Amino acid sequence: MKLFGFRRKPEWQHADAKRRLTAVESLQDPALKAALPELAQTDPDPTVRIAAISRIDDLAVLERRMRGEHDSAVAEAAKQRLIQRLCVPQVEESAALEALRQVHDEEVLSDVAQNAALGGLRRLALERSQRGNLKLQRCIHDPDPELRLWLLEQIDQADALQRIADAVRKKDKRLARAARDKLDALRIAAGDPTALETRAQAIAEAAGRLTRELPDDRDPQLAALQQEWQQLSRQVSAATQRRVQGALDTAELALRAARGDWSPPPRAEPTPAPAAPEPSSDKPVQALQDQLPNIEQSDFDQSLQALSAQLEALSAERGSADARIEALRRLLEQRRRQRNDWLKAQRQAAREAERESREQAAASTLNQVEQALRQGQAQAAQEAWQSIAKPGELSAALRRRWQTCQQQLAELAQAQRWASRQARQRLCEETAALQGSGLHPDAVASRVKELQAEWSKLDQIDGDQAPPSDAGISRRFRALCHQALSPAKAYFEKRRELRGERTQAIEQLLTESLSEAADSAALLQRQQALRDGLNQLRDAAPEKRNELAAQIRAQLDGIAARLKDQREQALLGKRKLLAKLKRDLGAADAEAGIRLAKAAQAEWKQLARGRRQDEDALWQELRELIDPLFDGLRQRQDADQAQRQQIQQAADGLLAELEALATAEPERLLHADSHVESLRQRWRELGRPEVNDGSETARGKRPAPSADLDERRFDRACEAVRRAQARQQQQRQLDQLEAICRAGDWLAERRPAAALREALASLDLPASARSRFEALAETAADSSNDAQTESQAPAELLAVRAELAAGLDSPPDDQALRRQEQMQRLARKLEGAAPLAASEEILDCLIELQCRPHLEASLRQGLNQRVRAAFAAAQAG
After folding, report:
1. DSSP states of 26-51 as a string?
2. Quick one: which of 231, 256, 255, 257 has its CA closest to 244?
3. Which residue in 71, 77, 13 sits closest to 43, CA to CA?
4. Which portions of the chain have biased composition (kind: Pro residues) (predicted)?
């Protein structure tokens, strides 16, 4: 140990900022690590504070530094360090949550919501963030499935739900299904006719599947469908009601037949109908029912009132009670209640939107205030502060930020008053330093004016807090200004003498005379001398400047009059040219007028110039004659060019949109036909601009029109879309074929039902195949069920059907089956049955083949290969 070493300060307390920076960056002393929070707050050098912040792991300290640091670079370093520590996996969750609850910076909240390793931190950041699209983004991309479901619960916008369902359709089926269900529920609750019709069709399709498949839980499924249909039946059209009710009745008959009950299903009637109306009397009621207004119509009340009046008139005309009229009355009342519910939902949504808008505006303004406070801009912070809403109208989090900003504003105002006192003291010291400084008297006077201007600026900034004029510091400043200007009095006296001499010289110039026969050169020389004297008046005595200026201007006016007479002759030729041009243009058409204007311009340049003012006037007169001609020509040219450019831009936009469609995702390609047809129609509607062949440009002949639209490029783009659709369809069918074969292999292995259902859920199967495979999964492990397939068609017949659909030859052993199948196809064709597409028919054969797990492995493999070959041939054809 060195002698007196114990008395030396550590390196991080050294007076040299560079040595402090080196110590903070490199030393591993425990004492330094303990002193890092204090260094980050109190060290006068920003670079040292940044270095200390980069080594701090305490989240609370980092949050306070980010919020309380006035230097923007240091505050940014604290922000980035806080984000880094919050996002690492090793962070302590409780401390991180506590620190994050104090953060109001949107950048920090957004980064933590996207990059934090802990799900709890991401959820808290999402709860506190005010960014509207952040929840939507994280609902799609967050790795935690439970957090994604929680975010979905916070989203109620229909377009956002649709976007989520489309984005996660393949990677998170549970979230996609929940988003679609919530979207459908919103649309159905709003009375969307399309959503109601779609849901009704889905109920009919589900009832049809129950009729065909008869699953084990068919009774609960049918009961659920019937209950849902009771709620929707009165909100859809009559045709849809008949279709869905028929499907449900058919399903109930099928279920009763499966139980051995062949009696027709009972129909629950609330009250017996009085009498069936005549067919002719049902038509007016049906017509009124078809006129039911949508709940979102602007004239809903008027339409419903008119419909009620028509219904009452029809009821009065019939006289007796009518069941259909009573049902329509109930339907009108139900539609009125739906309208009221929809209006309530709209008002609630408007209030929520207004509250959210107010919260967002307050948060944005608070961000501005906090930014201004960090940068020490008191005036900007105060201006932004005035526009913030009342604290009672803000949320708890924003109120806490409001209180923090209010406290910081008070602290900043106090610091500003202290700085103002220091600035006034500095102005007094600088004014006192002017005495004996050796500066030029003009420099002293200018500096005194500058200091007085700074003093006045401080008075404006301080406002009511500024010291009065009779205050001690104000009197001291005025006295110091007087003392600083006192030594310059001798200089100002000498300057007054010099100004008197300059005044005499200008008076001598004014006494000189000019002969009447002077030419233009002499007049111009005298004019220049007088102008120089006018410029030198700034050095003359101030009290005589106006008088001398008036005399100089009088002589200048006389010289100008004489120069005017001399220049009149020079302007006469141009006046004659203008008169001649006016006469010629009166009898000329547009094309001849252009030629005359060009000739007049060329002749004008050959004539001598007159006085500038007259020259400008005559030139303006010439422009008034020829400008309309050239303007009309340019307008016609610009209109033609603009029309060409507009058509070309529209064509380029259509081509770009079509080319982008060729590389779009598979979901868009499935529905690209209507889009392509729309683009094709818009392409046909593009026309060409009409060209006035009789006009000319300012430089000569009319330019040729632009080339025709690039039809070949458009056709190539359409063909690219069709090829992309074909590739996408072929790839999907190939994927489904592989999935069907794999499912058949699993069924043949007779796996347990639970494992088989789980494996089937991971495959992209057609709906028809999935339902059949799931039904077989329950009985796949039971070999006693193999006898159930004895009544089915031979397995070889399925391969023959596939080969027949693909146009391939069957083996000789299966020729009899092929002839039998050909006869059946001919019979179906004669009956008018629509044939299936070859690929779809082959897939159906493959599905049917996989539903026979009892086949021998070699036979099934051979049949699979034959069906695959048929499928490949169908796609190649």
Report:
1. H---HHHHHHHHHHHHH-S-HHHHHH
2. 231
3. 13
4. 263-277
Cβ atoms of 681 and 718 within 8 Å: the answer is: no
Max alpha carbon distance in the chain (Å)? 140
> Are 70 and 376 contacting, i.e. CB atoms less than 8 angstroms apart?
yes
State how far the alpha carbon of 73 is from the alpha carbons of 41, 50, 66, 108, 374, in Å: 13, 8, 10, 16, 10
Read off the DSSP letter of residue 607: S
Residue reference for tokens 């005298």: 526
Coil/strand/helix, residue 116: coil
Instruction: Give, rounded to a whole angstrom, the gap between the first and last alpha carbons of the chain.
Output: 94
Return the H-helix or E-strand segment holding 354: helix 323-374
CB-CB neighbours of 463 under 10 Å: 7
What stretches of 237-277 show up as alpha helix (H) in DSSP? 238-258
Distance CA 291, CA 314 (A): 15
Of the CA atoms within 13 Å of residue 607, those in its CB half-sphere come to 21
Of the chain, the percentage scoring pLDDT greater than 70 comes to 87
What are the structure tokens assigned to 218, written together? 């068919």
Question: What is the C-alpha separation between 255 and 217, in angstroms, rounded?
Answer: 11
854 contacts 786 by C-beta, under 8 angstroms: yes
Other Cβ atoms closer than 10 A to 41: 16
Residue tagged 């103002």 (tokens)? 420
Among the listed residues 71, 91, 70, 26, the one whose alpha carbon sits nearest the alpha carbon of residue 52: 26
CA distance 639 to 634: 8
- Three-state SS letters, 369-417: HHHHHHCCCHHHHHHHHHCCCCHHHCCHHHHHHHHHHHHHHHHHHHHHH
Half-sphere exposure in the Cβ direction for 53 (13 Å, CA)? 30
Residue 461, C-beta contacts closer than 8 angstroms, at least 6 positions apart = 379, 416, 420
Backbone angles phi, psi at 177, to 5 degrees: -65, -40
Which of 798, 786, 789, 781 minimizes the C-alpha distance to 859?
Answer: 798
Vertex 806, ends 802 and 809: CA angle to 5°?
A: 80
The 10s digit of each residue's pLDDT in 8-50 is 678 777 777 778 888 877 877 787 777 787 777 778 788 888 8
Cβ burial, residue 81 (10 Å; 0-12/13-18/19+):
buried
- CA 783 – CA 769 distance, rounded (Å): 21
203: its two tokens? 């109920």
Mean pLDDT computed over every residue of the chain: 76
**Cα(660)–Cα(652) distance, integer angstroms:** 12
**Tokens (6 digits) for 72:** 């923007």
> Between helices 218-232 and 193-213, what is the axis angle to 10°?
160
CA atoms of 629 and 803, how far apart (whole Å): 79
Q: What is the DSSP letter of 810?
A: P
Q: What is the pTM of this model?
A: 0.32
CA 347, CA 672: separation in Å to the nearest integer?
A: 38
Q: Which of 124-138, 387-401, 457-471, 797-811 comes out lowest in average pLDDT?
A: 387-401
Query: Residue 101's closest CA among 59, 143, 139?
Result: 59
DSSP β-bridge partners for residue 700:
697
What's the angle, vertex CA 22, arms to CA 20 and CA 25, rounded to 5?
A: 105
Please report, as a single letter, which amino acid is at residue 301. Answer: D
Neighbours of 111 (CB within 10 A): 19
Q: Which residue from 570, 566, 630 is spatially nearest to 598, judged by alpha carbons?
A: 630
Q: pLDDT tens digits, residue range 419-440?
A: 777 888 888 888 888 887 778 8
The pLDDT confidence band at residue 2, using thresholds 50, 70 and 90, is very low
Identify which of 622, 635, 538 has the alpha carbon closest to the alpha carbon of residue 578.
622
Count the Cβ atoms, other than its own, within 10 Å of residue 656.
11
Beta bridge partners of 157: none
